[in-house]
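Appendix B, example 12.
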Amino acid sequence: MNKNITTGMYGKNHKDESQTGEKKGDHLIFLICILLATIFWFLIKLSDNYSVSYQMKIKYTHVPAGKLITALDDSDAIVRFKSNGYNLVDLLLHGSLDSLSINMSEYDIRKETGNKYAISTSNIREKIAQTLGVNDRDLEFAKPVLRFYMEHLRKKRLKLQTHLDLSFKSQFNLFGYKIVPASIMVYGPKQILDTLKALSTEPVHLENLENNKKVRIDVQNPYPQMLKMRPQKVIINLDVEKYTEQRIIVPIDASGVHPEIRTFPTTATVSFNVFIRDYEKIHANQFKLIPNVKNIDLRKIKTLRLELISSPKDISNIRIIPPEVEFIIVN
């Protein structure tokens, strides 16, 4: 009896699962039909013609030699045209409606007043229509002309400067650097060139240097829309040299002190870092070491601090040993 009951239950479950599967299949077929209908509807709509209007940013190319566009009265152009949906989708996907490129060598440029010029939109309509893939009779601009300001380029040679952010391996440092070329030619409006005294390169960031380095780097353009530079990149030659510590005994010069004094000791040791190539060039007579007596009553103190008032260039980390000396007043 138990066996018959079990068999009956199995038959019922099998029937329910079959019905559920059929319902799922019906739903899938329905969704596919809806999807196909939507696709066909969309394709039909794409074949229709539409009247559209777009605001496009103007980009001028092939500016006449020796001139520069300094400002735009019309930086955007509103273009109205008719086209089918397929073409509109293609234009949107490829970004062709974002900007309007005008090759100035292909059109007549009319001077209005001073540095103000204009291009008739009727002259560029056919070319733009070809670019957009529409009939030129179905395209029109919101404005009859596009106006801009254009000036003659002046030139000025400017020196270059740079900012160095360098780190070195132990006992190495920068001996010097050279920018090649040291100056470049800059072209632009006179009123801007007159404000410039020099230009800077991009900062140079280098670490763990131990050898000479040659860096090709951009020159910073403070007015990229107004200035042209030749060249735009330069070379910075970094001269990296090893240094060592050197010590020299230097006499203490108290001849300028009044009343007259005598120091104990009469000499001091000057310790410093020097590049190896300059090691043999450093001599004691290049240093001048004096006791500092500014605003000091010599009768009230026993020691004076030493001050180095003259030393060779290109030495660093200077230390005076001892930093202070005793003294007596001679008269």
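The chain has a mean pLDDT of 85. The radius of gyration is 41 Å.
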